[in-house]
Amino acid sequence: MNATKPPTIVIVGGVAGGASAATRARRMNENAQIILLEKDPDVSFANCGLPYHIGEEIPNRDSLLVATPEFLRRRFRLDVRTRHEVISIDRERKRVEVRGGENAETFWIDYDKLILAPGASPVLPPIEGTDADNVLTLRNLSDTDRIKAIVDREQTRTAVVVGAGYIGLEMVEQLVHRGLKTSLVELQSQVLPLLDPEMAEPVAQELEANGVALFRGRGVTRLVKDSQGRVTEVVLSDGSTIATDLVVLGIGVRPNTKLAVDAGLEIGASGGIATNDFMQTSDADIYAVGDAAEYRFGPSGQRMRVALAGPANRAGRLAGQHAATGHSDPMPEVQGTSVVRAFGATAAMTGLSRATANRLGVPARSVTIVAKHHAGYYPGAQMMTLKLVYQSETGTILGAQAVGGAGVDKRIDVIATAMQFKGTVRQLCGVDLSYAPPFGSAKDPVHMAAFAACNEIDGIESFCDSDADLTGKQVVDVRTPAEIERIPLAGSSDVVAIAVDELRERLGELNARQPTVVSCAVGVRGHIAARILKQHGFDVVNLSGGATVRNRVSFD
Amino acid sequence: MNATKPPTIVIVGGVAGGASAATRARRMNENAQIILLEKDPDVSFANCGLPYHIGEEIPNRDSLLVATPEFLRRRFRLDVRTRHEVISIDRERKRVEVRGGENAETFWIDYDKLILAPGASPVLPPIEGTDADNVLTLRNLSDTDRIKAIVDREQTRTAVVVGAGYIGLEMVEQLVHRGLKTSLVELQSQVLPLLDPEMAEPVAQELEANGVALFRGRGVTRLVKDSQGRVTEVVLSDGSTIATDLVVLGIGVRPNTKLAVDAGLEIGASGGIATNDFMQTSDADIYAVGDAAEYRFGPSGQRMRVALAGPANRAGRLAGQHAATGHSDPMPEVQGTSVVRAFGATAAMTGLSRATANRLGVPARSVTIVAKHHAGYYPGAQMMTLKLVYQSETGTILGAQAVGGAGVDKRIDVIATAMQFKGTVRQLCGVDLSYAPPFGSAKDPVHMAAFAACNEIDGIESFCDSDADLTGKQVVDVRTPAEIERIPLAGSSDVVAIAVDELRERLGELNARQPTVVSCAVGVRGHIAARILKQHGFDVVNLSGGATVRNRVSFD
């Protein structure tokens, strides 16, 4: 940078990452010229809040405008230009070609440092009819307004949401809140495809309990229009049809990398703009942040796209500082931590699922525990299922998933924090968490999961997955007869029922030479039973999460 | 241990640490003889739940019995003997002298391994009248029953709680819930003396808002009895008096170390039973866990007592395993993480307060931020104040305190987890926390505090404490005139009011050579103003937490 002339920092995209970059750059450098270019009419809006405005939980649209262009000009002296689209980058001459302004003319803006925060665009399925007025994606305030206008119409009674990811679930919840009969279509065989299947199941049950019609394992093949060009029916790959007044598509996003590609910037293996630890692209004067950029993903060490608001904001802040001053802390690894609420269920995750670890060839094990979110003797305790995925030999935590009600986000945040330090399940046993009856337990669900994992690593106890094939195994259900009668263990016709408290006396009923699986309601009594049998020479495993997870029921 | 004869493990004390030790020992060794001796009638009861039974939030007394003796016998084959007190240890012959049984006879029990979990006893103030029937401490179920019986009486209208620590606050809350006019007396000048004073203040305000009469900075000098021997009046050190029907003393606990002292076991500097990393005392066959034992305290590295349920349970589990098998993981350092609810306020802390760090001579700095517990645009966001204490040069996190409503426990747990890894404030900036509008913010309060700390370390911004003496300083309040008029900055008569958005134009009104303090409502605008002034050559600091913390008001 020229010492006499303050730098010009041009930022492309004015939402999470871009706005963070712009404001941090200003705080670092009062004299820099900072130009924020946004192709849409709004900057710095609450993109994660859009579904909640449609659902009228956030009644006031203005609440979504976290910072208006006028606010950013006044407080941060930013040169904010909305409805200005950058159409090319001339890296040689360090300038961007912009189209915008009253007459949508094209002109050039010079930069010393350029920060790309172009975000991502919703993917449309390759079928006819997605252009209809009542088929929408949700990415910005205009989308929000259009969807909300349709929902607000009295004749709108039904909706189909396509894609059971985070935004799909949030939309479903809000559309149901608005009184619409809502269907959810997901190509995968489960909702929340980033989760392991059994962890997603309680969320699916909660959706159905709230009247949502679930269509899993099916794609949309056709959108049938009426004579006015409005879609009235969704046709699925199995031939079934759903009549609807509104279709919301949430099947994924594609990073907006065209500008970067055209400029010859390196694109990473995950399809995002390649970056280094300071969010610099292959051109050191150009940074990339947000959904279009790649980050270092903690559990795998690979660089990949992570389309989440938290990393976008933090990366924007660092890139803004680096652009303004020439230095900053490196961008920390991200763990992909996320959370979603669907009616009374909350699901959260961080890092790798077991399925993803398997797919990547990472040697992983996992344990699943079921526990209450605070002391069971204090009223209002809610059950949560917590699954911990870890590296088989080292015990390094690879990821975690939790589903339940209150306190799910807290446990995932604690584990995500341990992952930031490359923590092991053994270290996780020792985290000193706050406890009082309304908030937790002296042995927190996090501890219980970590204890189970260490027991497995230390050879104290072995587990099998909740969906394990029990054929040929001696299956011992150590619940009481009344419990077993109420909910027999799924997928096992030939179960020996011996309550844990009778197990020591009734060992003679079991075959110590047959591989044995013990199960209880959630895994705690199974743990005790497994220890008894192991010490009597049995080759025994405890069914992870017990009948609760295997049967996918809620016991409380 | 003799390979042919299973070991005898004797455990003294059957609540948190003792019960955890006994059950883990059994799971590790089916054949061990495990004798659990408890001087009281109950084992494994929910000691943290006692106030809530008095307050009838936990209506059923049986809920407090986490595990009955009969349950422990049945499920874990423990030889549980309640009303059995160990009166001496004969280390030479490896046996304990016990008094108990129907005729309270005295006899000896041999041990191979002995685990001491004797807990702590409430401290009584050295004054007359503490023996009255209506002057009680709260430690076990008998205490609970006695207090509850008094509260249940219709003629009981008023109560005095002495000691504003965790149990004192919980009792106050529950007594108010029961309709008693309740007073709280605390010798220190603040409630929750483990917290820094300004962090405890919102809790004090919440107590007063709920009708609690607060008497801080005063001790109890006399308990005045009526002719029936019941205390009817509490006299304080300033001469003031409080009429009362019930006195609950919660001024602290003393570790029950007599048995250990008499046996010649080493006592540590903090007055607890000295232990090594496996919770072994100076006699390798004797372990100590729970409130009477010492732990390694993370922030200082010193061994000290930590009278909290979490460490007791975890240490008991490890000691039980070590006693049963000869090996276990070492006990992790503890951070002293704790949480308490008082009506609508929650306060939580971990590690060192700033005051404690100062007292220990640890070079510490701190930052305080005020932020919402989830996205501000999503309804129901509650304010929290979060203070982060860190080592000045290294940035190693030493502790944190938070006060507010929802989400306070989560932030402290995240920071406590980072502390378990000796994390720095710089590493804390990068923790990847779950975010969706109902759960958090893309820039979480944890991040905001860590950012502020790093800004200070990097020389980007300086802070002064909320109670700083502003004499001689140029104080610039960058809030709007309306905000300032509503709540003028406390303790500063001569404030220049320049809203942050006008600061750049009105720099000429300020003296660039006078040391300057900027303040706003919570510190965010102050940060922006401090950066503007610093870049214009001012020697400027931002008032930590702004007027919210300095004035000790809730801005919302």
TrEMBL record, chains A, B:
Its EC number is 1.8.1.14. The keyword Flavoprotein applies. Keywords: FAD, Flavoprotein, Oxidoreductase, Redox-active center. Residues 469-554 form the Rhodanese domain. SUPFAM superfamilies: FAD/NAD(P)-binding domain, FAD/NAD-linked reductases, dimerisation (C-terminal) domain, Rhodanese/Cell cycle control phosphatase. Its cofactor is FAD. Belongs to the class-III pyridine nucleotide-disulfide oxidoreductase family. This is Coenzyme A disulfide reductase.
